[in-house]
Amino acid sequence: MLRRRRAERVQRVARPPEPHPSGATPPAIPADLVPKHIAIVMDGNGRWANQRGLSRIEGHKRGEAVVVEAAKGAIELGVKWLSLYAFSTENWRRSPEEVRFLMGFSRDVIHHRTDELAELGVRVRWAGRRPRLWRSVIKELEVAEERTRDNTVLNLAMCINYGGRAEVGDAAREIARLAAAGRINPEKVDERTIGRYLYQPDMPDVDLFIRPSGEQRTSNFLLWQSAYAELVFQDILWPDFDRLDLWRACEVFARRDRRFGGAVDKPDDALPDDHLPDDHLPDDHLFDESADDERAADPEETR
């Protein structure tokens, strides 16, 4: 089956995303201030469902379409990488019923949405661990990767059975194995060496890290890649998230002063407020740019 579906891979001209139902268009952010890589923790499915007297499973179902909506918003703005936290290594702690649903749901979402993503020019990638992950999920991910490998509009990293610490640990284990075999000089191991053994070695550093739902923590997501990411927390649950929320977060990002450890005295004129139309300015109530809280990282509400 995999071999037959591989043969279906063809290079097509990508179609542009259909406009947002409201008629809103992407904000006029200068190209050099658009984040190249956005990471999103898809948080709040369970709470969205509970608020409506529905099961958590219904919340996850509602969140499916938001994956494509976020990809459309990224494409329209010119973002090249979008990474979504779909199922973490900690999510195995949930009830067996929810884990079974999420495994089957992840498989079915990839199966049903790959054609639409391919038409948009999206290249699907997978970041995560193989152990414990259902074979049917791995198969759908591999098929989606193969069918979209020639697409160049947007890289969409589906992070399934993913954990930031697990990724760094797996890279360290492989480097140690190669060093023991005499294939790597331990004295030459540096940050670049570790980067070559991460799940997606060509994934660029995260520029913008978005977390909806009002929670303010990174939850073990892309720890290595997010070392200098700008964090934006939004009081909106994932099933209600759309490209407007992504664009607002990008506007906040464009106004940040990114120094990467350096310090230079200069006017804060990267993107003055009057550069953007009023209807594109972020709503104050959507954002809380305070530092990450100190609460313990419990298993997440969503994903």
Measure the end-to-end span. 29 Å
Number of helices: 8
Major beta sheet summary: 7 strands, mixed
Quaternary structure classification: single chain
Approximate strand percentage: 5-15%
What best-fitting shape do the alpha-carbon axes yield?
globular
Strand order of the largest sheet: 3-4-2-1-5-6-7
Q: What is the string of SSEs from the N terminus onward?
A: HEHHEHEHEHHEEHE
Low confidence ranges = 1-5, 274-303
> How large is the radius of gyration?
20 Å
Q: State the helical fraction.
A: 25-40%
Class derived from helix and strand content: alpha/beta
* Average pLDDT taken over every residue: 86
Overview of the molecule:
The protein has a 7-stranded mixed beta sheet, with helices on both faces. With 303 residues, it is an alpha/beta fold. The N terminus and C terminus are likely disordered. It has 8 helices and 7 strands, in the order αβααβαβαβααββαβ. The chain is globular and about 60 Å long.
List the helices and strands and how they pair.
Blueprint: H1 2-6, E1 37-41, H2 45-51, H3 56-77, E2 81-88, H4 96-119, E3 122-127, H5 135-147, E4 154-162, H6 164-180, H7 191-196, E5 208-211, E6 230-234, H8 243-254, E7 287-288
Parallel strand pairs: 1-2, 1-5, 2-4, 3-4, 5-6
Antiparallel strand pairs: 6-7
